[in-house]
Each structure stands twice: as structure tokens, then as C-alpha cells.
């Protein structure tokens, strides 16, 4: 590859992009205008932001005690109100319940008034509230005089929503009052609110704060009359001291904002130039001229990639600078955050900018390569813009995950693309260098690997003539259905295979919400039969019959190499210790939650009670047939038409793994699916995969049946494996090494089998060979 050609293409593309007014507006003008305009709008709107008073109807004030007072005039007592809530509560006071309202129907009346907007909340004090409260106080004084322990806490008001449900935090707990005598219990005040209305919810919170303060006054007065110190109910106060410096607090705020902004705009800034450099050139008719130049396809891709990276980084940096400057000016003008001392808002640390720029290079390369590959597939600029949303939807969860408070930079999270970079940036900006240093290698390694794979995909897109010169086609539902029936091939197309994979995932997703957790072995059998036969095998078989001409070729139902069957069985046995070791490692990286463990333990308890032959038939033989028909049958056969064997194997394995809901199991299943797909293609028979799948599941189920007593020192199996204190089955290391060597030998034997490639695979191999020769020239 000649870097001089790459430089020429890079300069050409940059010059063309700088001449494009749309690109300049998106990258340079929009960031400089967007945030100041948003700031002006925010300042204008902030003038109208104010809290509105809550209208509260208070019924039964005649039943209130005189001391301490709750009501003074037409409002709550001033001692119970804070400066913020003094003017935010407007009361409508009624000494007693109106005669036309039945106490039993008070909830319905309050619900009607709140929904009609007459009041935001309704407070009701039952009759004899003051008398019962005073009686309770005297009983407490008598118990104190007799040396008995009394209840020094006042009664809590009962808060109800408009639907009639009591708030669990506010329901009074006085079940033991007056030694179980119900007639001595204090009747509960009731607060009616409608949690579906924001105004009513806010009113309920304000009233709740007042009533809690009033209750505390009653408690203090009871303690004074009983000659007890006020500190009896609060023997100590918590003195919370923040030891963080202002710089670190400011860094903690920016560490959650800046990485998000940088990554989002890096993706957006990469996509639009990529669409113009690929789909735009198709529309302008200049792509053919560029491809006919002496530059190789790889050099063209690198030139366009560097161009897209440049604009991606420029967009991200300009947006970050504009947002930071605008935010600082607004905060300085308002002066609310810094003066109140709540948040020390200020400029980000200078070290943060260095780390962001450093991390922006690989991130921009990754997003640029992905955008370039996606844009090369588009027929027009309009179609290319449609592809931004799927790419954004895939990236957003990876960007949002680090913003959750419970997400930390660990070995498991550092291996997640994009997420690891954001977590590493967060620790670096916050100054936690030692914590970040531990995971720099996995984060950088995963990011560089993703960059290389994305760049290779972009190069592949430019080497594929069918992708570069796709023409617009007329599409209609009737034409498409006739095409599916009339132009059927012996095996499904790649699009049909992907459609089948997503259809299985969709069915499995909705079935998971409908199905109930089994409680008996019989219900477990029915649930698995439905899941395997109806939800996995049946859709794949129906699509095979409807969309292909040769179900035998699609499902590879042949036995051309009989020796492959025993080889697959032995390979499953040899790989079993390695797969269990892999599962233990994944369990360390991504531990199961306690709820998941309990659910699995309950299912395992049901399975342990069933006969072993039934368990093997249901959980080893049945999945081996149904899942192989779907994933290594229809899906793998269709994906091979992409021309890349390993891509087809990996994608089918991903579909296979995702159908298993538990993350740890899905990761292990993906790896096992790659092995099964490889031996199926090499042997040319789906039956080989069924043998491996059945043996693999049977070994796991049998190992789960072994209890620590069966693995004692007197057991003949003690030389092979042992069980831990948690009952986990673990193989000895010498056996793992031997099994690994045997598995490697068997995989080499499968590799030496000459398999029959598809026409697309033969053509792609020739193109790859030609591209490799051109690169080394």
C-alpha cells in the first residue's frame, strides 16, 4: 500500500468536503450556533419557571389538639413551614365533615374533587382525634410513673392515593397501643392525593412535610411533660462531612457529561461525511473515476477513512467546546448553583481535555470505519441517512450503560466495546489513575480490535462490486412475494437466513413474557416441548419448505462421511472440560445476580427430581434436533451465500447464543455454536452437529447430577474431577490439558476434510486472493 496515494485521496476528499456547504454547516456552523441558541432559550424560559401554590382542603380541624397548634388562622402554623413552603400551601379549612358526605365515601369524594381540579390534596382528621391523643399521652405518663416503658412516638398520618392504596412509608404502626385495646387506638389522619397528577403529588409531599414536623412537635411536648430529655428519641446526630475537594467534585460532574457528548458527536460527525463520500459519489457518478485510478481499493478506503475521521474529530471537539463555553456562561449569569453551594459548577480540569482528545482518535476511527462500510452499502444519500438510526440504536446502549451509578470499570466491563472507553475516561477525568491503569490494556486492546474489524469490513465493502454498484430497484409487496416463490433456490438467501434469525429472537422474546415459571416436572416438560418444537424448529422448517426448493440441501441431511459422527462425539467429550473452564471464567467476569441464581436453583431442583433418561431426552436430544435444524440448518445455509464461511459461522452462532436469555450461558453458547458450525460445514452434514450438540448437553446434565458425596476419595471419578464447596464440578488441570490436545487434533482432522463450497464462497476466495496479491505487489 502506497501512503502517497492515500495522502492524495485524503487531500482530495477533504477539499471536496470543505466545498460542501452542508458539511461545513453540520460540522462547524451548527455547533457554534446550537448551544448559544439553546442557552438563550433556556434563559428566556427560566423566567417563567416558578412553583405554583397547592390547594389543600383540611377537614376536621375541630378535632385537633390546641397544643402544639397545626392551624393558625387560615394556614398552617408558621413554626411548621419552611421559607420555601410558606406561600405554597393554600388551605380551605372545615371544622367538621360536611353532613352530606359519608365518612365511608370520603375517598370517592376526595377523588372527585382532585380530578376536577378543585383541590390538589385533601386532609381529614377523624372525630375524637384530640381526645384519643390526650388519652394516649396520659397513659404514657402513668406508665412512666410506674417505671414501665412507654411509646414516645406520636401517631403517623395515614396517606392514601386517590385509588385508595395507603402509602407504606406513612401508614401508622400502633398495633400494640393500649395493650391491644382497639378502643384506645388513636384514629389516623388521612391524606388523599392522586399520584397520577403532578400537582397532587407535589401537594402531598408538601403536606406530608408539615404533618411530620407537627408530629415531631407532639413527640417533644410529650417528652417534656414526662420529664424526659428530648434527646431520648434522638440520642445522636449524624455529622456528614464531604472530604472531596471542589476540583474533584467538578471533575465528577464533567466525567459523566463530556464522554457522552464526545462519543455521540463523533458518531454523528462521521456518518454524514461518510454518506457523501460513498453514496454521494454514486449519485454524482464520480466513484467510477476514482476506482479506475491507479490507487488500490485499500488505499481508497484509507484515504476516505482518514477524511471521515478528521471531520468526526472536528465535529466532536467543536461541539464539546461550544457546549462547555455556553454552559459556563449560563451558570455564571444565573449564579444559582455556585452560590447555593449545591454543585461547584465550573470549567472541567485541563487533564480531562487531554484524555478526551487522546481517546477520541480510536473512537473516531471505529465510528468512521463503521459509517464508511454502512454508507458504501447505500444506493443514494437519502438511503444512507436511513442507516444512521440503526447504527445509533446499537451504539446508544453501549454509551448509556456507563452513565448508570452502579456501573464500574472492571475486567468484565472493560471488555465491552465503547462502554469500556467511557468508563476508562470517567476514571481518568476523576483522577483515579491507579484504578484506570489496571484496565488500560483490555480497553485499548478491545477498541483496537474493533477498529481493525471495522476497517476490514469497510475494505471488503469496497472490494465487492455488487455492493458498490447496487442500483435502485422497484419494490412492492406483491413483487417481493412472487419473487420469493418463483425465484426460490435450493438453499435460502442470506437475507432470508437473517430474517429467520431475527424472527426466532422475536418469538423467543415475547414467549418469555407469556410463559410462566414451571413448578413441576410435567410443566417443565410441556414448556420445553413448546419452546423447542413450536418456537424454534417449526418456524425454521416452514421457511425451509416455503422458501427453498431442496430442503435436503438446506438442512444438509446427508451422511457422506460416517467417520465424522464418532469424531464429533469424541470432540464434544474432549471440549467439555474446556467449555466448563470457559463458563467459570465468564462467571467471574460477569457474576449472576442473586435473583438469577435463585431462579436457576429452583429449575435445577425440579430437574434433579426427574429420571435421568427423561432429562437427557428432553434437554439433550430434543434441543440437538430442533436447534440444529434452525441455526446450523436454515440460517447457516443461507448465510454461506455471503461468500465468507467464517462470517456465516459466527453470525449463526451469535443468533444461537442470543436465544439463550441468561448472559453467561449465551456467551458460552456462542463459542460452542462456532465449533458446531465449523464441523457441520466441514463434514457437510447437519447430523454431525446434532451428535456434538447432544453429547455436549448430556455431559453437562450428567455433571450437574453428581453431588459431592459421589466425588469422594473412594469414588473412581476422583482422578478425573472434584466438586467445590459450592457443589461445582471441576476437572483436574492435567485432564484439561490432555483434552485440549485431543480437541485440537480432532479439529485439525475436520480442517483437512475437503468440503464443498458454495459458488459465492469460491468467488470470494478468488477475490481475496487477488486483493492479497495486489497488496503485496
Give the helices and strands, then pairings.
Elements: H1 3-18, H2 21-46, E1 54-59, E2 71-72, E3 75-76, E4 89-94, H3 106-115, E5 121-124, H4 129-145, E6 158-161, E7 190-193, H5 198-225, H6 246-284, H7 287-291, H8 297-334, H9 336-340, H10 350-377, H11 381-386, H12 388-400, H13 411-414, H14 419-429, H15 433-437, H16 440-463, H17 465-468, H18 477-486, H19 494-514, H20 521-547, H21 551-555, H22 564-589, H23 594-609, H24 612-639, H25 645-658, H26 663-683, H27 686-705, E8 721-723, E9 729-731, H28 733-751, H29 759-776
Parallel strand pairs: 1-4, 1-5, 6-7
Antiparallel strand pairs: 2-3, 5-7, 8-9
Helix pairs in contact: 1-8, 2-8, 6-8, 6-10, 6-12, 6-14, 8-10, 8-16, 10-14, 10-16, 19-20, 19-24, 20-24, 22-26, 22-27, 22-28, 24-25, 24-27, 25-26, 26-27
Adjacency order of strands in the biggest sheet: 4-1-5-7-6
Shape estimate: globular
Which sheet architecture does the biggest sheet show? 5 strands, mixed
Distance between the termini: 8 Å
Please report the total strand number as a whole number.
Answer: 9
Write down the Rg.
35 Å
Regions with pLDDT < 50 over 5+ consecutive residues?
A: 149-154, 163-180, 336-343
Structural class: mainly alpha
The proportion of residues in beta strands is under 5%
Task: Write down the overall mean pLDDT.
Answer: 81
Number of helices: 29
How much helix is in the residues? 55-70%
Tally of separate domains: 3
Oligomer: single chain
